[in-house]
Design goal:
- The complex is a heterodimer of chains A (102) and B (556).
- Chain A is α+β, with helices and mostly antiparallel strands and 102 residues long.
- Chain A has a domain of 65 residues.
- In chain A, 20% of the residues lie in helices and 26% in strands.
- The longest helix of chain A has 12 residues.
- Chain B is of the alpha+beta class and 556 residues long.
- Chain B has 4 domains: 105 residues, Sulfite Reductase Hemoprotein, domain 2 (Alpha-Beta Complex); 150 residues, Sulfite Reductase Hemoprotein, domain 1 (2-Layer Sandwich), CATH 3.30.413; 93 residues, Sulfite Reductase Hemoprotein, domain 2 (Alpha-Beta Complex), CATH 3.90.480.20; 145 residues, Sulfite Reductase Hemoprotein, domain 1 (2-Layer Sandwich), CATH 3.30.413.
- Chain B contains 19 helices and 21 strands.
- In chain B, helix 5 crosses helix 9, helix 14 crosses helix 16 and helix 16 crosses helix 18.
- Classes of the chains: A alpha+beta (102), B alpha+beta (556).
- Chains A and B meet through helix 2 of A and helix 1 and helix 14 of B.
């Protein structure tokens, strides 16, 4: 029996700003992970990743990251992905303070 | 210090123009990321966890006030108002936007700086003793040689596609402050009769396979420096492994073939290459040396103000005791400015702080500043009479911390707060340890100790050569910190030994506190340093402090 598929989000860095972005269900790139599409099917995840990789002039280094369903939307599982949603811990910089973080 | 020639200036400007066009083509879509990545890396531009990062070369760690002020300007204009000084004596900007980078590079070129060969499989920025030209124990200033190597290695056509990156460090003193045995090539200046030359060591490195460099030539006359270095890199270029990134550094080449075999190959290559240099390199060295004229220090000015302040002001005295080093001129001192205020990020300086340091270098320090690999800034030539004024100005800018060489003077890589390669965070661990020992008011009693933290196995934080090294890892999705003890980055270099299982983030500060407690309990006197106590007693008492008594552990 195959292992149960861990839900995923498609994430990448934005080409111009370099910051973390996530793919939404309506093919936008959002800076708020909670707005991302939570992908619960492995084959669909591969299709969405291909879709992301077909936008090399918008994002860099797209990959699938483990996620889970939270009350407001997808949430990160691994600590690295948690840091990507908020920024560094030593300065109040990055997503944790950026206005219009929607 | 070295000033760019017309050739240098034209070369750097041309490179910026090329990169500007490359960035435009990337944004237009004419270049893919696969095509663009090697081009941006050639110009020091990384894509990190939250943003791009621009790594700017500070050749052999030497800056002047104009350069420092320009770094401050860049930090404010295009970044978030600060810069991060690194263990490679460079500075990194953590938040540039892709479109702005060509402008940042032009601003650097305005003051004779660049980001060339701060990344990629090339010969990287040459590092050196941060006390060069000032230290009392120095044979000669190593920086003209470092500059010669920089000019030779920059855009060297043979060495733009090495198996892996290649790092050279030079020291002009028998006391190694440049960690040369952890570099691909280390050059240690020696005197043999009337002649000056270098002991050449090869194949040092940290990372996942830490190695202490081995002696390949015990005395290399100065005149043979470039042909010999070129012979080494040429042999490595042909022999180094390109099949496996983890075995591609020259330390592995030396390990696999043996230093004796490598020496034979290098000497054979050297016999061919030596005559092709024809003395042009020595002519260039003389021109470089002329640009490194020592500052004219003022004799005869009394240093009474220094002694008076020492006697009257305990805060100044504490700072003078830790942050000053003997200068070759007895009326002067070498000042190390701590970028390690307790609880702050090791190596970070705000634009305002950069300007304060530039002003002090201009007013009191013969226009010289250095970046140390320990992530502090050095004013190498300050008259003792000026020290109270310098200290007061530093203290007012949050730069007066008296902790150089103490437990809170921690080296820490950016770790997972910034770095895409990191497996755990380093900075918060450094902040917590420094804050804790400040609360305990113990660090002056503990005395000299090197605590170094890396956020992954690549060891940018030099944890292998820390008296206490901390390595941050990902253990099943949780940050975990391994401890090594007994590392040493000096001329008596050694690699630290692992104590045992690592500690979670919320236990690592307590673990370090227990290690220090064991040292204080076991040291023979206040003069015996942590490293000396460790070398005398070995791992056992420290392991017990970390993990408890072995019998109790077995019973539990």
């Amino acid at each position: 029996m195959s292992r149960r598929f861990t839900p995923k989000v498609v994430t990448a860095n934005h080409l111009l700003e370099g910051d973390s972005v996530w793919l939404t269900v309506d093919d936008r790139w959002t800076r708020n992970m909670a707005e991302a599409e939570l992908i619960e099917d492995e084959a669909h995840a591969q299709i969405r990743l291909l879709m992301a990789e077909s936008q090399p002039n918008v994002v860099v280094g797209a990959y699938l990251a483990d996620a889970r369903r939270g009350p407001r939307g997808p949430e990160p599982i691994h600590f690295r992905e948690v840091f990507r949603t908020r920024g560094p811990s030593n300065h109040a910089h990055g997503k944790q303070v950026e206005v219009g973080n929607v | 210090m070295y000033e760019y020639s017309e050739f240098d200036t034209a070369f750097v400007r041309e490179r910026v123009a090329q990169f500007r066009a490359q960035v435009e083509r990337r944004i237009d879509g004419a270049l893919t990321e696969d095509e663009f990545k090697p081009l941006r890396l050639m110009n020091g531009l990384y894509l990190q966890l939250h943003a791009y990062m621009l790594r700017v070369a500070v050749p052999y760690g030497t800056l002047d006030p104009a350069k420092m002020r320009q770094l401050a300007h860049i930090a404010e204009r295009w970044d978030k108002g600060y810069g991060h000084f690194t263990t490679r004596q460079n500075i990194q900007f953590n938040w540039p936007r892709l479109r702005d980078v060509p402008d940042m590079l032009d601003a650097l070129a305005d003051v004779g700086m660049h980001a060339i060969q701060t990344s990629g499989n090339t010969i990287r920025n040459v590092t050196s003793d941060h006390f060069a030209g000032a230290a009392a124990d120095e044979i000669a200033d190593p920086r003209p040689f470092a500059e010669l190597i920089r000019q030779w290695s920059t855009d060297h056509p043979e060495f733009q596609f090495l198996p892996r990156k290649f790092k050279v460090a030079v020291t002009g003193s028998p006391n190694d402050r440049a960690v040369i045995k952890s570099h691909d090539i280390g050059l240690r200046m020696l005197r043999k009769g009337d002649e000056i030359g270098f002991e050449v060591v090869l194949g040092g490195g940290l990372g996942r396979t830490p190695m202490i460099a081995k002696v390949i030539r015990d005395f290399l006359p100065v005149a043979d420096l470039l042909p010999y270095l070129e012979s080494i890199v040429s042999v490595y270029n042909q022999l180094g492994r390109r099949d496996n990134k983890f075995k591609a550094r020259v330390k592995i080449t030396v390990h696999e073939h043996g230093i004796d075999r490598i020496r034979e190959l290098v000497e054979a290559e050297f016999a061919l290459r030596r005559s092709t240099f024809g003395g042009a390199d020595q002519q260039i060295l003389r021109e470089i040396e002329a640009r490194f004229r020592r500052p004219t220090l003022r004799d005869g000015r009394p240093a009474d103000a220094y002694e008076a302040s020492r006697a009257a002001d305990p805060v100044f005295r504490a700072w003078a005791d830790t942050n000053l080093v003997a200068h070759r001129h007895p009326d002067h001192a070498i000042v190390t400015i701590s970028l390690k205020a307790h609880g702050a990020t090791p190596g970070d300086a705000s634009a305002d702080q950069m300007r304060v340091m530039a002003d002090l270098a201009e007013e009191f320090g013969h226009d010289e500043l250095r970046v140390s690999h320990e992530q502090n800034i050095v004013l190498p030539h300050v008259h003792k009479a000026d020290l109270p004024a310098v200290h007061a100005r530093l203290a007012a800018a949050g730069l007066g911390t008296a902790n150089i060489g103490l437990v809170s003077d921690i080296i820490a890589c950016p770790g997972m707060d910034y770095c895409a390669l990191a497996t755990a965070r380093s900075i918060p661990i450094a902040q917590q340890i420094a804050t804790r020992f400040d609360e305990l008011k113990l660090e002056h009693d503990i005395g000299p100790i090197k605590l170094k933290i890396s956020g992954c196995i690549n060891a940018c934080g030099h944890h292998h050569v820390g008296h206490i090294g901390i390595l941050g890892l990902d253990r099943a999705g949780v940050e975990n910190y391994q401890i090594t003890l007994g590392g040493d980055g000096t001329e008596a270099a050694s690699i630290g030994e692992r104590t045992g299982p690592g500690f979670p983030a919320d236990e690592i500060v307590g673990a370090v506190e227990r290690l220090i407690g064991a040292y204080l309990k076991h040291r023979e006197s206040a003069e015996e340093t942590f490293l000396e106590t460790y070398r005398r007693l070995g791992m056992a008492p420290f392991k017990e402090a970390l993990y408890g008594d072995e019998r109790q552990r077995n019973a539990a």
